Structure formats: C-alpha cells, structure tokens
C-alpha cells in the first residue's frame, strides 16, 4: 500500500510532543503539508526543529479557545485533514473532582474538537474530500477509576465522531475516532510515576504500572506514539475511503471486547 497525501493540508492539534508530534511526522512523511500546533510559538519552534525535514507550518495558538482555533486555522490554511489530538489528563479521586474540573475536561477535550470540526467540515464537503479524526482512548470504553472525568471526555468524543460522520454522509468526507491504548509519552511517564514507586528504573516502572493498573493489555507494554500515528496516517489517506463513523482501535488489545 502507498499512503500518498501529496497536495493535502493537515492540522494536528497539540502536536508539539508525544502522540501529536508523531502524527505530524507521519502525515508529513506521507507527503502532507502539516500545521504543527501548540500553545506557544516557542514550543512550536522547538517541535519544528525536532521534526526536521518535511512540509510543516507553524500554527501556534491555544485552540481550546475560539480565538485560538481561528488563529490556528488561519496559519494552516484550508484544512483537508483535521486531527483532534489535543487533550489533558490526570489522576484525581472521583469524589474530589470539582465542577470546574468537569467543565475544564469537557471544554478542552471535547468542545475544542467540536469547534474545529464545525469550522473545517463545510469546506471539506464543498471540495468533496476530507478527513476528520478524534484521538480518543481506551479510557472511553474502560473508564479508569482514578480519572473518570478524563474517561467521560473520551467517551463523548466517540459520540461526537459518530454524529459528525452522519453529518458528512455521502460527501466524500470521512470522520472517525481512534481508540489509543496506554501510550509511552513524556506525560504518561509522569503519570506512571504518580502511581508506582518513583525510585524504580523506567522499564520496571512501566511493567509494574501495566501489571497493577492495565493488566488487560495483550501486548503487555506501553504503545509507542509512532504506532498510533501509523493508524492515523492510514485513516487520513484515500485508501480509507470506506471507513467512516468508526471507533478504530490501536490499543494493544487492552479493551476486552470484539467491538468498542
């Protein structure tokens, strides 16, 4: 299979590090022009330097606000591929999650993606081609007891994705969510060490975390960001033209179900 995205422009939110940066790199390697987004110009410039070769454009903005979303879209130009990757997470006892916490997780993880989709979908439909993707999580299906507000936001993304897929029906635009499993990123390393002994070497800490907190994983390790990116690049390509309205899993077998 040849994944050719030449002539396509993508915007990947929250793409200065981790899964987002791996997705940006993967899309660029397939030939796309990619808007790299982060909240500050400094973080975007640093990511661009680390990404190296590729057709990248800086799109610094806080896309969790309407003004920031507009600025990112203006910097990127007409978007053919929107990857809603931005998300926040953190462990918190269920009964200590405040109203403000619930609102923040919904606004950043869900409403940001809704707002951007609302902006780019009409243009995609007019052009007769487009890809909208939402980076969800195994936590959308297997709600973690230590961060149910995060799980709630990812469950909502599955509904948002399915709904917008219906809105795009018959237009040549596909809309999907990606259920990513436990993934090895800098932020996740901090999260892992918040739940296991900080004195453990990383390899041991990772194994202990998976054993105690993610025992359902069939690969029994954290997923690398590039493995998530591989699926995103495929779903962004013309080869995935018949895949829409789906919640596609790259979770290492973590979700113990045949369907999400």
How is this structure best described in words?
It is a single chain. The protein has 260 residues and is α/β, with parallel strands linked by helices. The chain has two domains: 9-181 and 224-250, NAD(P)-binding Rossmann-like Domain (Rossmann fold), CATH 3.40.50.720; 184-222, no CATH class. The chain is built from eight helices and seven strands, in the order E-H-E-H-E-H-E-H-E-H-E-H-H-H-E. It has helices spanning 18-29, 41-51, 66-76, 99-127, 148-167, 186-195, 202-213, 225-236, and strands at 9-12, 33-36, 56-58, 81-84, 130-135, 173-180, 247-250. The chain has a seven-stranded parallel β-sheet, sandwiched between helices. Helix 5 links the parallel strand 5 (130-135) and strand 6. It is globular and about 50 Å long. The mean pLDDT is 96.
What is the H/E string? EHEHEHEHEHEHHHE
Uncertain segments are none
Q: Give me the secondary-structure category.
A: alpha/beta
**pLDDT average, as an integer?**
96
The N- to C-terminal Cα distance equals: 26 Å
CATH class of the largest domain: Alpha Beta
CATH superfamily of the largest domain: NAD(P)-binding Rossmann-like Domain
Q: What's the tally of helices?
A: 8
* CATH fold field value of the largest domain: Rossmann fold
- Measured by DSSP, the beta-strand proportion falls in 5-15%
Architecture (CATH level 2) name of the largest domain: 3-Layer(aba) Sandwich
Helical content stands at: 40-55%
- Spatial strand order of the main sheet: 3-2-1-4-5-6-7
Number of domains: 2
Biggest sheet character:
7 strands, parallel
Shape: globular
In total, the number of strands is 7
Rounded to an integer in angstroms, the radius of gyration calculated over CA atoms is: 18 Å
């Amino acid at each position: 299979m040849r994944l050719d995205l030449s002539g396509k422009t993508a915007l990947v939110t929250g793409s200065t590090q981790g899964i987002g940066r791996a997705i940006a790199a993967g899309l660029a390697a397939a030939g796309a022009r990619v808007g790299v987004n982060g909240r500050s110009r400094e973080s975007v410039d640093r990511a661009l330097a680390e990404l190296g070769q590729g057709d990248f454009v800086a799109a610094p903005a806080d896309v969790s606000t309407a003004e920031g979303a507009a600025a990112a879209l203006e910097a990127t130009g007409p978007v053919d591929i929107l990857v809603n990757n931005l998300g926040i997470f953190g462990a918190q006892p269920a009964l200590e999650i405040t109203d403000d916490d619930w609102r923040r997780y919904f606004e950043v993880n869900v409403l940001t993606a809704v707002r951007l989709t609302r902006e780019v979908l009409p243009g995609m439909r007019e052009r007769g081609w487009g890809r909208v993707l939402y980076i969800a999580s195994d936590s959308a299906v297997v709600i973690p007891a230590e961060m149910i507000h995060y799980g709630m936001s990812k469950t909502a993304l599955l509904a948002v994705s399915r709904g917008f897929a219906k809105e795009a029906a018959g237009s040549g635009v596909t809309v999907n969510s990606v259920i990513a499993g436990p993934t090895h990123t800098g932020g996740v390393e901090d999260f892992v060490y918040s739940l296991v002994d900080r004195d453990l070497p990383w390899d041991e800490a990772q194994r202990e975390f998976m054993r105690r907190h993610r025992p359902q994983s069939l690969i029994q390790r954290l997923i690398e960001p590039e493995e998530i990116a591989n699926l995103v690049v495929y779903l962004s390509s013309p080869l995935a033209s018949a895949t829409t309205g789906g919640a596609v899993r790259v979770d290492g077998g973590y979700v113990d179900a045949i369907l999400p």
